[in-house]
Amino acid sequence: MQNIYSKYFSEESLWKKIQKFSKTAGATVVYAVLLLFYVMKSKEVTVKTKVSIAAALGYFILPTDAIFDLTPLVGYTDDLGVLIFALSQVSSSITPEIRNKARTKLGEWFGEIDEDELQDLENKIF
Question: Which GO terms describe its cellular component (predicted)?
Fold first, then answer.
């Protein structure tokens, strides 16, 4: 997966995708993306880990994936599966600071967020 999807990752394309589809994707998917993004930006993670994260984020960015992203309710299911898998692989690198950054950015974009929804995601990766 790394070689196929990492080439689709760039910060610019990630922010464009989130800006355009964040409400459709939902807070859980965007939170997963933000966690991965902030882990990737960490100086403590290896290049190999960064490439793995870039592949997962590249899959999210890529407009043609297993389930069409504009399909209501199920369109981001495959994306979330890939994101959760990547998060589980880097969970030891998700610091409280990274969680706070992701939650703060999520709050800026979504306003009030459902803490239970975010906790459900975290329970799947930790």
Answer: endomembrane system
